[in-house]
Amino acid sequence: MKPLFVKIKGWLATLSFRTGVIVGIVCLACYAISFAQMLLPISLGAKSALWITFFGLAKTAQYSALLILGKAGVQRVRKLLRRRAA
Prior knowledge:
Blueprint: H1 2-13, H2 17-36, H3 44-85
Helix pairs in contact: 2-3
């Protein structure tokens, strides 16, 4: 199983910075949906299933984005965000 994870990590690292940013945005959307669905008038079981699904997707997208961006990419995103805030 370990060689498979190493292979996936290597493949993710070859993706572009832009792809990493898009996956990060998908992560934020999944987090928002996972908590916003609590306002829907549906059963507790359905809410739990939706929360588990979207929170899991958010975590998967989060770690994928971090693997795609790497240390240099994360610093680049922070620099872009600081520039927009100022």
